[in-house]
Amino acid sequence: MNNQTTTATDPRWEHCLRMISSNISREQFDTWFAPVGFVSYDEDGQMLTLSVPSPFIREYIEEHYLRLLRAVLQQQYGQGVRLRYEVKVDAINNISTREDGTARSTSTSSVVRRDGVNASPRALQHLDSQLKADYTFENFVEGDSNKLPRTVGLAIAQNPHQATFNPLFVYGGSGVGKTHLVNAIGLRVKELHPELRVLYVSAHLFQVQYTDSVRHNTVNDFIAFYQTIDVLIIDDIQELATMQKTQLAFFHIFNHLHQNGKQLILTSDRPPVALEGMEERLLTRFKWGLLAELEHPTQTLRRDILCYKIRKDGLRVATPVIDYIAANVDKSIRDLEGVLTSLMAYSVVNNCEIDMALAERVITRTVGVSKQHAALTIDEILMHTCHFFCIDRDDVLSSTRRAPVVQARQVVMYLAQQHTRLSTTKIGAFIGKRGHATVIHSCQAVTQRLQNDEAFRQRIAELEGLLTQ
User: Fold this and answer.
1) How many angstroms separate the Cα of 335 from the Cα of each of 212, 305, 368?
2) Which of 26, 44, 290, 424 fits as disulfide partner to 165, beta carbons 3.0 to 4.6 Å?
3) pLDDT digit string (tens) for 94-107?
4) Rounded CA gap, 218 and 221, in Å?
5) H or E segment at 336?
6) 234: pLDDT confidence band, cut at 50, 70 and 90?
């Protein structure tokens, strides 16, 4: 009479492993199947239970080796064999979760020990969130260019379990406040929900950690750690472009956190549509929640930021000097802070007031911004470009696809991006109500042609000379 359940070891599973190893490389087998262990086989129910060290291993096997696994199991255990996993969630206490083996299974039953006794995972160790304590909402000055992302950030901090803004994908140019905003969200979450695990990490550090985990054969621990986070903040996600293996690890982390109602917050210097080298399935997930653009600060916001920092540092700066700085330092908030720090240093060292002459000298030395550059508008760029290419303004703003018009339209968008601080959204809206994706494509097309077409490069240089006269 056959036993109801086979436990401990099973020659049939050992034979399955030998068959699998003969069909894939040694490295693949050691990485994905060597950690898999036999638990039991229920003869009556034809249920094979295997142990895997992490959800990441299970997901990867079923995504890449399901057909092979199914074939060898059916050969050894029969056509009706079913598969179930015990996934380790706590190696120290030997706690696992049981999951049915299907192509896209995400359902998980209650947490059980290997002996079948119900258990709860042990308390997780204290986590250093890596947040910058001085990047708060209190000193994140609100203006028209950042109102939406700031408002959404506050909403997430109040209720990090809501799904409406998950993930939050914040994008914008360098120095517009992305890092400040996401740190402010993390700090407010910790203040309002101290029980949650919040982690801020740059994409570069994430990549370094993943590479180290591969080198030390601890990828499972790397994945398992990130899957314990309640609010995961990754800065400069564009740095993972072309890093295919790191993207795969992040894909599984993203899926696990999102499916379990954990908040993801990502920043980038460009929108998902412009992230070349990023897997399509990740780009799709980036768009599940909210895409929020942090635009270059308006002159009003720049002035408000200056006033706030001047009050905070106890400085005395005349209103005309503040207005001059706000009008001429228009690239980023980081530049504003740099100019103000330099002004304070010059004032202290030379024992002089911060007047207009000092402001002009410091701005020229630190950011090199001229009043002419700051005053250039997209309307002027459009006018000069149309005159230069002998194209009618209305044609550029229309939907016509005639080649000369398309060229002039793309050049206008490119020059507007180079010589103004308008967002791609506002540039597109001005040029015939086009979307920011069109602007990005146009700028990329002009940039590529500048690299490959000497005559075109000379013509654009001539046009830029006219603009800056």
Assistant:
1) 35, 12, 11
2) 290
3) 444 444 444 333 22
4) 5
5) helix 333-350
6) very high
